[in-house]
Write a structure and sequence with these properties.
single chain, 295 residues, alpha/beta, Rossmann fold, seven-stranded mixed beta sheet, five-stranded parallel beta sheet
Length: 295
C-alpha cells in the first residue's frame, strides 16, 4: 500500500492547526499536507488532487480532515468536498472543526457511563454553540430528552428545531435563561427532573455557580463542564476532575474529558484510512466514540 497521506483543510486564513496535524501524525498519517484559508470556492482543486492521483484500493491511503476555528465555515467546506466525489472516485473525509465533534462525543460518552441516556433528561448549557448543538444531537440519538439552554430563546428554538428535523422523533426542547444560574428560580426550572447537565459555554463565562449545583435536585447525577479556562462554566468543578464526586454529583472537567476526546480523534483518523468512502461526521464520530469508550 502507498503511504498514508492526510490533506488537512483548515478554514482559518493564516495557519492550519498544529494541534490537528500532530494528532494526525500520532494516529498514523505518514504525510500531513496542510492548507489554510480553505473555502468552498477554492477547495475543489485540492480534492481533485486527492481523488485522481491514486486509484482502486490505493485511494484508501488518502484522506481529508476538515478543521478550523469556524465550525459553520468548515461545514460548508465539508459539503463542497462531498460534492466533488462521484461513483467510487472518492476519499474518506473527517469533519472536526475546533474539536466540535470529538469533544461533544467524549462528553456524552462520559455522561453515559453514569446515566442511561435512553429516557433520561439532559440539560445542555450554551446549547446553540457548535459543541452544544452536537452534544444535544448525540444525547437525542441515544433517546434522551434534551433541554437546550441559551440566553436567547429565539436561538434555542432554532437550534432545537434543527436537531429535531435531522433526527425524526427526537425530543429537544429550548430553554431560555440568563448568563448565570443562581439558586432558586431559573436553576430549579432548568434542572428539574434532569439526570445530567453538560456545559458547553465559552471561556470565562460562568453558567452555573457552585451553590446552584449543590442545591440542584437529587435527580441530577452528572455534571460535565467543557471549559478548561478559569473561571469555569460550572462552579465547584476543576478542569482535571474525572468522575469525581463533588457537591453530591459525579463531575467531569474539560481535561478530565480530554483524554477520551484525544482517543476518539485518533481513532477517527485511523478509521479514515480503512476505506475510501468514510464520512466521519457527527453521527459517525459518535458511533466510534462509543466503541472507544467500551474498550
Amino acid at each position: 500500500m502507498p503511504p498514508k497521506v492526510l490533506l488537512q483543510l483548515d478554514t482559518d486564513a493564516v495557519f492550519a492547526s498544529s494541534f490537528d496535524a500532530i494528532v494526525a501524525a500520532d494516529a498514523g498519517a505518514e504525510h500531513v499536507l496542510q492548507y489554510a484559508g480553505v473555502t468552498p470556492e477554492n477547495v475543489t482543486p485540492l480534492v481533485h488532487g486527492a481523488m485522481f492521483t491514486r486509484g482502486g484500493k490505493d485511494l484508501a491511503s488518502t484522506a481529508i480532515f476538515i478543521g478550523g476555528s469556524d465550525v459553520t465555515a468548515a461545514e460548508r467546506v465539508f459539503e463542497q468536498v462531498r460534492a466533488c466525489f462521484f461513483g467510487p472516485v472518492r476519499v474518506s473525509v473527517m469533519l472536526d472543526a475546533n474539536g466540535c465533534n470529538t469533544t461533544a462525543a467524549a462528553a456524552v460518552v462520559a455522561a453515559a457511563k453514569h446515566v442511561t441516556l435512553s429516557g433520561a433528561a439532559v440539560a445542555v448549557l450554551a446549547g446553540t454553540g457548535p459543541v452544544g448543538r452536537r452534544v444535544a444531537e448525540m444525547c437525542a440519538i441515544e433517546g434522551a430528552e434534551v433541554k437546550l439552554a441559551s440566553r436567547s430563546l429565539e436561538k434555542a428554538m432554532q437550534a432545537a428545531k434543527e436537531v429535531n428535523e435531522r433526527l425524526a422523533g427526537s425530543s429537544v426542547r429550548p430553554s431560555v435563561r440568563g448568563c448565570q444560574v443562581n439558586r432558586g428560580g431559573d436553576s430549579e426550572d432548568l434542572f428539574r427532573s434532569c439526570d445530567a447537565v453538560i456545559a458547553c459555554g465559552a471561556a470565562g463565562v460562568v453558567l452555573v455557580d457552585a451553590q446552584s449545583l449543590a442545591y440542584a435536585p437529587d435527580s441530577l447525577r452528572v455534571a460535565i463542564d467543557l471549559n478548561a479556562v478559569p473561571p469555569l462554566g460550572i462552579g465547584g468543578i476543576s478542569a482535571t476532575d474525572k468522575a469525581a464526586e463533588k457537591l453530591g454529583r459525579i463531575v467531569y472537567g474539560a481535561i478530565g474529558v480530554g483524554g477520551l476526546k484525544m482517543k476518539i480523534h485518533r481513532r477517527a483518523i485511523q478509521e479514515a484510512f480503512e476505506s475510501n468512502d468514510k464520512l466521519l461526521d457527527v453521527a459517525e464520530i459518535f458511533r466510534l466514540a462509543k466503541i472507544v469508550a467500551s474498550e
